[in-house]
Amino acid sequence: MPAIPAVKGTRDFYPEAMALRNWLYEKVRLVSRAFGYTEYEAPYLERLELYAAKAGEELVQEQAYVFKDRGGDLIALRPELTLSLARMIAARSRALPRPIRWWSFGPIWRYERPQKGRSREFFQWNIDLLGVESPEADAEIAAVAVALFRAVGLGPDKIRLLVNNRRVAEARYASIGIGPGQMPSALRLVDRRDKLSEADWRAYGVELGFSEPTLEGLVEVLTDRDAWKASDELRAFFEAASDLGVSEYLDFEPLIVRGLDYYTGTVFEARDIDGRFRAILGGGRYDNLVADVGGDRIPGVGFAMGDVTFGLLLEQAGVEPKRMDPPAQVLVCPIDEPASREALRTASRLRAAGVQVEWYPLPDRLPRQLKYADRQGIPLAVILGSREIEAGSAAVKDLRTGQQTQVPLAEIEGRLIEQLERLDPASC
RNA sequence: GUGCCAGUAGCUCAAUGGCAGAGCAUCGCACUGUGGAUGCGAGGGUUGUGGGUUCGAGCCCCAUCUGGCACCCCA
Question: Is the distance between the Cβ of A106 and the closest atom of strand B smaller than 7 Å?
Answer without folding.
Answer: no
